[in-house]
């Protein structure tokens, strides 16, 4: 359905036609890798493609048993380079008390990978509209939006445009909130070689290197990110997680390209959310969850709290957790999220 778009996208990013065969991956291998990620998730749930405009499809997991119907559902929005399978520690626990939906964002995971606008605002709007069309198609009147990393940024952006659909925003280690400091280079000197490398790689997507190493890609993921294997060691003793991450990130670049176009050098957002979050309707509560060991700047939570003195803003730090809070300390994370949600209904 979106093959013509994928071909056009491949050509526009200067990716040679031989690259897909160079990378040991396929859509089916991604599906199988996700199936292995979810094999430890207890309980019954459905998997489906939800159609939205442009012939695009959003891959969705639904947990909705009879005992939790009538409760406001939690909708999980993953971060950059991730997918629904990485919520494996959380899906069962969170769905015991209310419906849970996890979707692969447009351009990521098993969802469609269309062309995005090269304009940062338009690309952001494409993400937001895809979430709204998904919501309408699934038939949710209102939801608790929980977003990690890029998903947190999009949860905030969605809530600004569609506040009537959001009962609570839970921002987990959100990306894209602060502005890049004018003194960034003075306060934290960046070596010349890093600047040169950044300039050389700037025309390319963030994950282009993973594709260019071809058959070495799976080993590269295992070598550079051994922490992911540790995060899920209670579920898997093999390379299930690193294989899933590999197959997630070497498919046709789409959401990855949109993310690149939404950033300025060194990962700062072109359109920082702190410039707009003060416009959010005051009755929408916000919870910000950080890992105590994360390298992500946690000051944004305090800034949001100062900007919304008459609104509910809660900041939670999970001890012993890094950026991937939900996988680093899943029991504590699940417990705190359930507590937040129980305040709703």
TrEMBL record:
It catalyses: 1-octadecanoyl-sn-glycero-3-phosphate + (9Z)-octadecenoyl-CoA = 1-octadecanoyl-2-(9Z-octadecenoyl)-sn-glycero-3-phosphate + CoA; 1-(9Z-octadecenoyl)-sn-glycero-3-phosphate + (5Z,8Z,11Z,14Z)-eicosatetraenoyl-CoA = 1-(9Z)-octadecenoyl-2-(5Z,8Z,11Z,14Z)-eicosatetraenoyl-sn-glycero-3-phosphate + CoA; eicosanoyl-CoA + 1-(9Z-octadecenoyl)-sn-glycero-3-phosphate = 1-(9Z)-octadecenoyl-2-eicosanoyl-sn-glycero-3-phosphate + CoA; 1-hexadecanoyl-sn-glycero-3-phosphate + (9Z)-octadecenoyl-CoA = 1-hexadecanoyl-2-(9Z-octadecenoyl)-sn-glycero-3-phosphate + CoA. GO terms for molecular function: 1-acylglycerol-3-phosphate O-acyltransferase activity; carboxylic ester hydrolase activity. InterPro entries: AB_hydrolase_1 (IPR000073), AB_hydrolase_fold (IPR029058). Residues 73-328 form the AB hydrolase-1 domain. GO terms for biological process: cell differentiation; fatty acid metabolic process; lipid homeostasis; negative regulation of triglyceride storage; phosphatidic acid biosynthetic process; positive regulation of triglyceride catabolic process. It comes from the Eukaryota. Its main location: cytoplasm. GO terms for cellular component: lipid droplet; mitochondrion. The keyword NAD does not apply. It is found in: Cytoplasm; Lipid droplet. Its EC number is 2.3.1.51. Keywords: Acyltransferase, Cytoplasm, Differentiation, Fatty acid metabolism, Lipid biosynthesis, Lipid droplet, Lipid metabolism, Phospholipid biosynthesis, Phospholipid metabolism, Transferase. Belongs to the peptidase S33 family. ABHD4/ABHD5 subfamily. PANTHER family: 1-ACYLGLYCEROL-3-PHOSPHATE O-ACYLTRANSFERASE ABHD5 (PTHR42886:SF34), RE40534P-RELATED (PTHR42886). This is 1-acylglycerol-3-phosphate O-acyltransferase ABHD5. It comes from Myripristis murdjan (pinecone soldierfish). The lineage of its organism: Eukaryota, Metazoa, Chordata, Craniata, Vertebrata. The gene is ABHD5.
């Amino acid at each position: 359905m979106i093959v013509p778009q994928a071909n056009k996208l491949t050509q526009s990013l200067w990716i040679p036609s031989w690259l897909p065969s160079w990378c040991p991956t396929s859509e089916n291998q991604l599906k199988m890798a996700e199936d292995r990620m979810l094999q430890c998730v207890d309980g019954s749930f459905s998997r489906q493609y939800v159609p939205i405009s442009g012939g695009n499809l959003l891959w969705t997991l639904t947990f909705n048993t009879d005992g939790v119907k009538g409760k406001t559902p939690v909708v999980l929005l993953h971060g950059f380079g991730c997918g629904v399978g990485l919520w494996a520690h959380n899906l069962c626990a969170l769905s015991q008390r209310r419906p849970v939906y996890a979707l692969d964002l447009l351009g990521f995971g098993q969802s469609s990978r269309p062309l995005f606008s090269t304009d940062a605002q338009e690309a952001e709007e494409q993400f937001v509209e895809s979430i709204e069309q998904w919501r309408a198609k699934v038939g949710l009147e209102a939801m608790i939006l929980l977003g990690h990393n890029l998903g947190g940024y999009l949860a905030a952006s969605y809530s600004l445009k569609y506040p009537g659909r959001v009962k609570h925003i839970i921002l987990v280690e959100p990306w894209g909130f602060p502005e890049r400091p004018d003194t960034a280079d003075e306060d934290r000197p960046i070596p010349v070689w890093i600047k040169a490398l950044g300039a050389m790689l700037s025309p390319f997507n963030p994950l282009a290197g993973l594709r260019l190493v071809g058959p070495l890609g799976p080993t590269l993921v295992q070598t550079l990110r051994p922490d992911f294997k540790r995060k899920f060691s209670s579920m898997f003793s093999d390379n299930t997680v690193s294989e899933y991450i590999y197959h997630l990130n070497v498919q046709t670049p789409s959401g990855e390209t949109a993310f690149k176009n939404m950033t300025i050098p060194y990962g700062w957002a072109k359109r920082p959310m702190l410039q707009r979050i003060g416009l959010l309707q005051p009755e929408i509560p916000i919870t910000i969850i950080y890992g105590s060991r994360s390298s992500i700047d946690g000051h944004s939570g305090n800034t949001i709290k100062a900007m919304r003195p008459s609104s509910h803003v809660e900041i939670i730090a999970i001890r012993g957790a890094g950026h991937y809070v939900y996988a680093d300390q899943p029991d504590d994370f699940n417990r705190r999220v359930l507590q937040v949600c129980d305040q709703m209904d």
